[in-house]
Specification:
The protein is mostly helical. Helix content is 53%, strand content 9%. The protein contains four helices and three strands; from the N terminus they run αββααβα. The protein has a three-stranded antiparallel beta sheet with strand order 1-2-3. Helix 1 packs across helix 3, helix 2 runs antiparallel to helix 3 and helix 3 runs antiparallel to helix 4. The longest helix is centred in the first third of the chain and has 32 residues. It is globular, with a radius of gyration of 23 Å. It starts with 8 loop residues before the first helix and ends in a 25-residue tail after the last helix. InterPro entries: Peptidase_A8 (IPR001872). It is a multi-pass membrane protein.
């Protein structure tokens, strides 16, 4: 044994590092935006046209569902879901393309940012308001967008078992002859 990692270990490590770096970056961006929103939007809102910056808090989960559950239960459930997503992304990363790794990192980062925010005071800070949709935050946007990208990637034709094989993978068939 030489003690050196195998050639396949390095790409797997890079793939996983991409997911983790993306997740950390997304979580940091969202947590910074939440802190800035709490500091700057406490007594005001900012109209940006299609979207307004407006401070709100959500003690439940998506669309305020479960807002009467104890905070510890919500934190535990959402943390367990985040850990499950991390385990999936960790195992999937070496086999995933770069788009799927970034999308997985976005999902993890969004989930972690909301768990950290909720663990602080029992609620999630929201700051993006449309007027026609419940107020949300960047973590929510990253979570939803990441899941949609992953779903679309897995729904592509070449990922299904019914998809036709590429020409080079098909068994060779002899060319028809005109001989009697």
């Amino acid at each position: 044994m030489t003690g050196r990692p195998s050639k396949t270990a390095t790409p797997a490590r890079r793939s996983r590092a991409t997911v983790l770096l993306t997740a950390a970056t997304i979580a940091a961006i969202d947590l910074a935006a939440k802190a800035a929103s709490e500091a700057r939007l406490a007594d005001s809102s900012v109209d940006l046209g299609l979207i307004q910056l407006q401070l709100a808090y959500n003690s439940g989960v998506a669309f305020s569902m479960g807002d009467r559950l104890p905070v510890g239960v919500i934190v535990a459930i959402t943390a367990a879901i985040a850990v499950a997503i991390m385990v999936y992304a960790w195992r999937r990363a070496p086999h995933a393309g770069w788009v799927e790794r970034i999308a997985g990192g976005a999902v993890i980062g969004g989930a972690l940012a909301n768990v950290v925010d909720r663990a602080r005071d029992g609620r999630v800070t929201d700051y993006l308001h449309t007027g026609w949709w419940p107020t949300f935050n960047l973590a929510d946007t990253f979570l939803v967008t990441g899941f949609i990208v992953i779903a679309l990637l897995h729904a592509r034709a070449e990922r299904t078992t019914d998809a036709p094989q590429p020409v080079e993978d098909r068994p060779a068939t002899p060319a028809p002859t005109n001989e009697p």
